[in-house]
Amino acid sequence: MSAIIDAVETKIFDAYFPGNNEDSIQLFKEAWLKTQQVMESYLSSQTKPYVGMQPSELNKMLDDIMHMPQHGLDIAEVIEQTGKKVLQHSIGVTHPKCVAHLHTPPLTAAIMAEMFINVMNASMDSWDQSAIATQIEQQMITWLCQQYGLPSDGDGVFTSGGTQSNFMGLLLARDKAIHTLWNWNVKKKGMPPEAQQLKILCSDQAHFTVAQSAALLGLGEQAVVNIRTDAMSRMDEQHLEQTIVALQKEGNKPFVIVATAGTTDFGSIDPLTSISEIAKKYDMWLHVDAAYGGAVAFSPIHTSLLQGIEKADSITIDFHKWFYQSISCGAFIVRDSSSFDFLHRNADYLNDSEDEENGIPNLVGKSIQTTRRFDALKLLMSFQHMGLAQFANMIEHVMALAQQTADYMEHDDAFKLMQRPTLSTVVFRYTADHKESDPYGSEYTERQNQLHQHIRWKLIQDGEAIVAKTKVNGQVCLKFTLLNPRTTLEDITSILEDIKDIAKQSKM
């Protein structure tokens, strides 16, 4: 017979968990206060977005802390060490010159929500692991469906981000198409022999996760058919319809259109209304990847850019992009809740059928994840704190800044703007020593490609700015992703002057 564990024996664990006793609460308080001091020191000393250390230097520095002691250290020492070694050498996403990726400074309310989320440690797969957290997520999903104009039967689930949401959109579209076309249950029987006929249509500027999802879903990347784009990188709807007709004549089954509301490079938004009409005409599922551009739905000035999104069968939204949430936080919403039937399953220990009959909401049936975080709380607290009007102001500010930046570049011969911004990304090249005869620089040489690579890396090494790079027609370009509402035109012009100096000093 096992020995009975005395409460006195378990008391030795109080130092490691917050709990309902005076000692552990006091230790938690001391740890939180120490963390607060370290955070304040980091934020107040952040004069540059990065300290400039290279990967090899970071690895050498980490040799001091990457060991697991047999006997633990004092929590204050661990926190202090983490601040000096980790926090101080991170990319400063809150800095106004951190303008590389769709990677935003988190709102204070979102950070505070993370504290609640971590203490609660709710798991969103079953109600008995989450309780009120499940109710809040459900109500936030209902509210989001309303914001995007979906009908009352709309539904959804919080996800880890755009990759998962896009995957789920194509998963549901695939299973519905196979059921409709061949009366085949993919969940039970796997893929039918005819599956190679299935085709996914998206623009040539769509996110790479469309092809990735096709591969993971057993359709293969060959199932993805790219539609050409216009001068503003938007899907050409005439080419879309022509392609559908051609595919059908060849015996293929185009079953889903993935429209993009905010391409990664140019922020372009496909013509959603006309695409939705084509999807309806040919009985195709319409998925809208609004991971980037979905935020403009909250701006009275710019919401018309998303006209037609309410016709989508499914929508991807990323909150850790333009909604200023801490990573990770996204959502996948559908216009018809029955779409989740293709995904739903029951587990006796988690969400048995009796629970459903009794109206207990176990959310695991709507997700490809089992354990999930209570990320809906971050969005709720953030909107409660800043309000919808102030959020709209943030969106409008950075969009205006992108236009001002474009205007500035068009009046500076040292730079070539690759395309007028639609949302808040600005793609450009340094051209002071290389004049071009056409908008895409057909005379561009490998030397200029190397120069742009050098400029970007030198900015990081100096710690002055975090700027992205991309390619347009094989040409390396630089990119500002302007999402931080505290970034000013002065910050941007300062980076541009640094770029000029680096280019002039370069021997390339």
List keywords for this structure.
single chain; 508 residues; alpha/beta; PLP-dependent transferase-like; Aspartate Aminotransferase, domain 2; Aspartate Aminotransferase, domain 1; 3 domains; seven-stranded mixed sheet; 15 helices; 13% strand
Description:
The N and C termini lie far apart (78 Å). The strands form 2 sheets. Strands 2-8-7-6-5-3-4 form a 7-stranded mixed sheet, sandwiched between helices. The chain has a 5-stranded mixed sheet with strand order 1-11-12-10-9, covered by helices on one side. The chain contains 15 helices and 12 strands. It has 508 residues and is α/β, with parallel strands linked by helices. Helix 14 packs across helix 15. Helix 9 links the parallel strand 3 and strand 4. The chain folds into 3 domains: 84 residues, Up-down Bundle (PLP-dependent transferase-like); 251 residues, Aspartate Aminotransferase, domain 2; 124 residues, Alpha-Beta Complex (Aspartate Aminotransferase, domain 1). The radius of gyration is 25 Å and the shape is globular. The longest helix has 35 residues.
Give the neighbour order of strands across the main sheet.
2-8-7-6-5-3-4
Number of strands: 12
Rounded radius of gyration (Å): 25 Å
Q: What shape does the CA trace take?
A: globular
What is the residue-mean pLDDT, rounded to a whole number?
Answer: 94
Total domain modules: 3
What is the CATH domain class of the largest domain?
A: Alpha Beta
Q: What would you say the CATH architecture of the largest domain is?
A: 3-Layer(aba) Sandwich
